[in-house]
Amino acid sequence: MSKQVKLTAQVRQETGQSAVKKIKSQGYVPAVIYTENEKPVTLKVSERDINTVLAHAVGESLLVELNVAGKNHLALIKEVQHHPVNQKVLHVDFHGVSANKAIGANIPIEPSGEAIGVKAGGVLEQQMRTIAITCLPKDLPELITVDVSALAIGSVLHVKDIALPAGVKAVDNPEKTVFHVVAPKVQEAEAAPVEAAPTAPEVIKEKKPAAAEEKK
Questions:
Q1: CATH 2.170.120.20 spans which residues of the chain?
Q2: pTM confidence score
Q3: pLDDT tens digits, 18-53
Q4: Beta bridge partner(s), residue 184
Q5: pLDDT classification of 5: cutoffs 50, 70, 90
Q6: Is 1 within 8 Å of 139 (Cβ atoms)?
Q7: Which residues does residue 202 pair with via DSSP β-bridges, in sequence order?
Q8: CATH 2.40.240.10 occupies which residues in the chain?
Q9: Residue 4 pLDDT level (bands cut at 50, 70, 90)
Q10: Mean pLDDT of 176-182
Q11: 104-182: which CATH number, 1.10.1740.10, 3.30.300.30, 2.170.120.20, 2.40.37.20?
């Protein structure tokens, strides 16, 4: 289950570039919370607090208990915008969720163990880094760990083969490949240099004698 962390936010009335610059100078990050059947609410969160929360997050889908003006909201951090150069957090989108309603999320996948095919010289290829799932907020996993130790060379593990936690359902195509152990690439033997054919000795043909002049 995902770790549910607490975060405090303040409602902000000011919008626009100048307002954003002002709150950033005060150590805050602009944010918005979207809640079903309600208008979006503009917020600001402490830059230090949001950095701490994100630093301990394994994946992008993080469930938080967001306190706004003394009222707690269960919310998912759905999108975080970063500065392209210094990677500072520029903006955060929260999506309010209901404790009794299923939510969708993309959860990171991580292999566990060493595949027997890898021990035999093969290579483990991971073709999916996240898996799309649906579950109640209380069942949201932080990470999906998959035991790959039984995979031999040529073995494939699909979405349908992953043992998910109780209450969690995969919505990706069950036939999609997650892990595949491939045979090691055989390096082509360097072609032996082709010996140059011996050069035939130059034959200098003797000039034929000039034809005798026809007798008059």
A1: 104-182
A2: 0.73
A3: 888 899 999 999 999 998 888 999 999 999 999 999
A4: none
A5: confident
A6: yes
A7: none
A8: 5-97
A9: low
A10: 97
A11: 2.170.120.20
Distance (Å, whole) CA 144 – CA 105: 12
H runs (alpha helix) in 56-206: 116-119
> Which residues share a beta bridge with 145?
110
Helix (H) or strand (E) holding 23: helix 17-25
Domain spanning 5-97, CATH architecture: Beta Barrel (2.40)
The token duo for 169 is 């359902």
Residue 187's closest CA among 125, 121, 124, 126?
A: 121
pLDDT tens for 54-69 read 888 877 678 999 999 8
For the residues 159-183, what does the mean pLDDT come to?
Answer: 96
Predicted confidence band at 211 (pLDDT cuts at 50, 70, 90)? very low
Helix, strand, coil content of the chain in percent (nearest 5)? 15, 40, 50
Token readout for 89 is 């957090």
Separation of alpha carbons 30 and 13, rounded Å: 11
Q: Is the Cβ–Cβ distance between 15 and 21 less than 8 Å?
A: no
Decide the pairing of beta strands 103-112 and 144-147.
parallel
The runs of H, that is alpha helices, within 2-113 are: 17-25, 47-55
How many Å apart are CA 13 and CA 38, to the nearest integer? 17
